[in-house]
Amino acid sequence: MTSDSPLGPLRSLCFSFLILASTVHAAITVHHQQENQIAFATTAPGAIYTGVAAYNPTTLAAPPVPSPAVLTTIPINLQNEGTPGLSIKQKGSFFGFSIEMSVSNQVLGKNSSLIQVPFLNLMANIVNRAGSVMIRVGGNSQESAELVDDSLIPDGRILTKNLTGVTGTTQTPPLEYRRDLFVMMNKISELVNVHWFLGIPWRQTQPFATAIIKAADEILGDRLLGLQAGNEPDQYSLHGHRPEGYSPSDYGGEMSDLFAQLATEGLDVTKGGMKNLVSPSITDFAWTPEQVWDSGLLDKHGANIGYLTVEKYPRHNCAAMFGEPGNPDIIDPQSVLPLYLTHDAHTSLLQPYLNSTAFAQQQGKPFIMFETNTAACGGFLGISDSFVAALWGLDYALQMAHSNFSGAMFHVGGQNVFYNPFTSPPTNQSAFHQWTVGPTYYSALVMAEAIGPSNNTQVFNYGVDNLSSFTPIYGIYENGTPVRVAIINYINDPSGASTVHAVISIAGTTMPSSVKVKYLLADTVVQKGGYTWANQTFGGNFESDGRPMGEEVIRTVDCDATAGTCTVDVPAPGAALVFLSDDAFTENKGAPAMTFPTTAYTKTRNTGM
Ligand SMILES: *[C@@H]1O[C@H](CO)[C@@H](O)[C@H](O)[C@H]1NC(C)=O
Ligand SMILES: *[C@@H]1O[C@H](CO)[C@@H](O)[C@H](O)[C@H]1NC(C)=O
Ligand SMILES: *[C@@H]1O[C@H](CO)[C@@H](O)[C@H](O)[C@H]1NC(C)=O
Ligand SMILES: *[C@@H]1O[C@H](CO)[C@@H](O)[C@H](O)[C@H]1NC(C)=O
Ligand SMILES: *[C@@H]1O[C@H](CO)[C@@H](O)[C@H](O)[C@H]1NC(C)=O
Ligand SMILES: *[C@@H]1O[C@H](CO)[C@@H](O)[C@H](O)[C@H]1NC(C)=O
Ligand SMILES: *[C@@H]1O[C@H](CO)[C@@H](O)[C@H](O)[C@H]1NC(C)=O
Ligand SMILES: *[C@@H]1O[C@H](CO)[C@@H](O)[C@H](O)[C@H]1NC(C)=O
């Protein structure tokens, strides 16, 4: 129902609308924020922002142009076949999301009859390009979450936070939730091809709370990819959840206890989530991955472990998030900004995992970065919520693909963090505000197109003599043949002098007469909102219904037949995805485009499904 309210531009308020999307057979009632775009008041010049972190408009100063100047005319000499060192085969779902369980009701929907339409659209954009999306619902808040009877949670809600006795650095209140959370997840999967991870609470092990295992299998079936066996166990003793000296073999012993308990409960652990446990999800805080492998975890439990996982953020911002003002440990975001604008940051972060990704291949198991983002404890103002993070996230994801990870889940927190790929409006404002799409969502979109839906894609971080850390380059291959090239330019140089000229050639084949190029762009690295991918945007704060806005622009770059090269320019800052053939391009257009247009909904009707 749309009504002309006295709120002027805020014409219609929030109602439940009935989805009538043509690709969808089930009719469900969904949460809908009204369609108008709102120029929401930002802080007046000089005023101090006092709202929540997710919408803080403060920007940083862009770093200077590197001096001396770096290599900008870059030869990219690809080979049509036989390139050594390509990654394992990757799926389009590589770039996934990790949604903190305690905010699942804000992000996914209020309950199974009130699903968030913008969320469906955001996922559909990725499914259209990549075929599917992986989402983990969990995090610290899963560790003491309790599945309770419907009657204990009032007002149609799916979860409540029990604020009695809040502990831990991230101060996540214990959760109580009901089965309808999983029903809602399953309904989302009926609408868009999302597959899910959940986690078994591990804080208390005598006995384990196992209700989630049965409920998740029953409700989600094959849409449940796996169940996480403990979140960041190498930090348990730090946070007082285990005694000092708690070791990888103690953790493995707890997994044995879980199996013993499930045997007494008559649960068949050769089926469902229990045959695809997600482990060990360590942070390299107290244990290295090798210490876990060497403890014999896979010898004992390998048959039930479906995914090997780690969780790593490059650094944390906990002092600012939870410390007192003036705390000397508080990091000035400006001082760490350059660390997010260099490829070397990714290679050094990932280097310690290369032995483990090789080990995972030997074990025949995928190795996943199960939770990550720009910085733990909410990220950094001006970094996590600016174009910096879009370039950083794309380079990081591509480098993980190159490094033989099989996926990376970027974390989504609540209103009080900076790093969200997408943020739903504050509950008390959802009547008139729309969603805010963050920079790492753009990384996800580009990554989805870079990898595409074949499940057969290989990635290679391309080395070039004298290449600087500001301009990483990736070759993307299908069946050993280069099909796309991704080029990132981290430099902020409005003069144009730092524009990259990528001179692409492919030995062993005739160059095409032209290539198609899509750009990820913003005016500066520190810009907030309004980034574009192929000229489409999700706008600024509160401006998105999850569908890209604007006309898609795909550039055609003519190649030089004599030289056998195609030269693609990449602005500073920016990123380009070059499609080396029409096949490489159309491949990503194979899936029927699907969105959930808010204009297609009928007036308010509560189906009560
Ligand atoms: C969802 O919440 C609405 C509004 O509170 C309520 O009317 C409806 O019954 C709830 N649906 C479910 C499945 O709980
Ligand atoms: C909230 O948590 C406290 C402490 O763990 C517990 O004693 C209490 O029963 C919980 N309240 C509800 C409503 O579950
Ligand atoms: C690689 O991992 C294996 C298995 O944990 C371990 O035995 C080996 O020492 C590791 N190698 C290096 C170089 O760390
Ligand atoms: C990834 O795995 C492939 C296949 O095993 C291997 O050739 C390549 O060197 C690995 N890449 C890295 C960065 O470890
Ligand atoms: C929403 O809640 C926040 C925090 O409680 C409050 O500061 C803000 O004024 C509220 N906004 C509206 C529109 O009620
Ligand atoms: C790729 O993998 C996904 C998830 O495993 C699967 O659903 C999809 O059908 C596969 N696509 C192709 C083209 O094989
Ligand atoms: C790399 O830089 C060095 C020093 O500036 C120069 O001598 C060399 O020719 C360069 N190599 C290439 C391939 O550009
Ligand atoms: C990019 O999109 C905007 C907004 O839709 C449109 O006005 C503009 O013409 C587009 N740019 C190009 C080059 O088509």
TrEMBL record:
InterPro entries according to UniProt: GH, GH79_Enzymes, GlcAase_C, Glyco_hydro_b
Q: Which residues form the signal peptide?
A: 1-26
Question: Could you tell me the superkingdom of the organism this chain comes from?
Answer: Eukaryota
Query: One of this protein's Pfam families, by short name?
Result: Glyco_hydro_79C
Q: Which UniProt keywords apply?
A: Signal
Domain Beta-glucuronidase C-terminal intervals: 474-577
Q: What is this protein called?
A: Glyco-hydro-79C domain-containing protein
- Which organism does this record belong to? Favolaschia claudopus
